[in-house]
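Researcher: Next entry in the queue.
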Amino acid sequence: CAASMQCMAHRLTQIATRTGDDGTTGLGDGTYTLHVRLTDNVGNLGVEATSDYVLDTSAPAAVGVVAPPSPSKERRPVWTITSTSGTKLECRLTSGQDVLKPFTACSGTYTADLTDKPDGFYTLTVHALSAAGTPGPETTSTYTLDRTPPPSPTTLSTPGQRTSNNRVPSWTFVLPETGSTAVCTIRFGQSVYREGPCTSAY
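Model: Structure for this entry, 202 residues:
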């Protein structure tokens, strides 16, 4: 403070006289109040003015994130975010090194719009903010968009002779993609005789 001012700063019940710009280095979080009053050249004191400052260097705790089912063909996946009531949250959506949505305010749930996006991995990053805007630890959750249909089964065999009097024919086939499942349909003319999940041999 200038020589013609008297300044004091205090945190709760702790009072210290300030001369110059000490800052709050080394002091704990809390409310600091600056008291200022003017004096003239004959020693008359003016009315004191005050101003509060809240020092908050703390970071909030990490938040919980529940991912949508993955992999999935859903183009609007929804994440559920859990945190302390009233906590300010920020969410960011990325794909690899590309930032699709920068950190913006979010809460409760986060829905990603992947309508015009290709198949791939999409990562949601969430952190909480303290009252002073300090971000807490980041929580990440990755979603896999997969709308590519599997190829046709390979080596689909014909049961024995194509024309036969065997009433229990059997087909075999190979699934070309790990994790894929098969649905078999037997038709007689325009009618469906049998349909449902199946494995080889069928």
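Model: The longest strand covers residues 120-129.
Researcher: Noted, moving on.
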